Amino acid sequence: MSRLRSDFWVSAYLRRCSVEGVDAALRKRGAAEAGAIFIKVDQLDGTASLYGPAPQLFLDESGERLFAPILQGVMPLDVEERMARELRFDPDLWLVEVDDRAGRHFLDLAADD
Q1: In a domain, 92, yes or no
Q2: Which is the most buried residue in 5, 35, 48, 107, by most CB within 10 A?
Q3: What total number of domains does the chain contain?
Q4: Domain limits at 64?
Q5: CATH of the domain at 26
Q6: pTM, two decimal places
Q7: Could you write out the DSSP letters of every residue in the chain?
Q8: Which pLDDT score, from 0 to 100, does residue 63 have?
Q9: One pLDDT digit (tens) per residue for the chain, 113 residues
Q10: 19: Cβ–Cβ under 8 A, 6 or more apart, which residues?
């Protein structure tokens, strides 16, 4: 089964956040078909977390996008610095920023076996 295009996935994700009453914004538009997607969650208390694509070993045949935490409970500037490095490596990535005091992200996370 093929995976949903990045642009469709991001659009659906933004709608999900809106339905849940959580502010989310597209900060960087990437490659429509297969750009890597990163989610920054700002807890609005001086901390933030960053989620990105799970390593390939966690992927299965379902075609679902799985995410893994990259940074958790760090200063928002740390997330920005990490994303600057990611952008130098992959300028076609997507970045969505979520503002939620509870730190909700609504992502499917890869299991830590």
Answers
A1: yes
A2: 48
A3: 1
A4: 6-99
A5: 3.40.1530.20
A6: 0.91
A7: -PPPPHHHHHHHHHHHHHHTT-EEEEEE---TTT--EEEEEE-SSS-EEEEEEPPGGG--TT----EEEEEEEE-HHHHHHHHHHHHHH-TT-EEEEEE-TT------BPP--
A8: 63
A9: 567 899 999 999 999 999 999 999 999 999 999 899 999 999 999 999 999 998 875 555 666 788 999 999 999 999 999 999 999 999 999 999 999 999 999 998 887 54
A10: none
Cα distances from 62 to residues 4, 23, 51, 58, 113, in angstroms, run 11, 29, 20, 11, 18
Give the chain's length: 113
Copy the structure tokens of residue 58: 């966690």
Residue 112 maps to a domain = no
Query: Positive or negative CA dihedral for 37, 69, 60, 89?
Result: positive
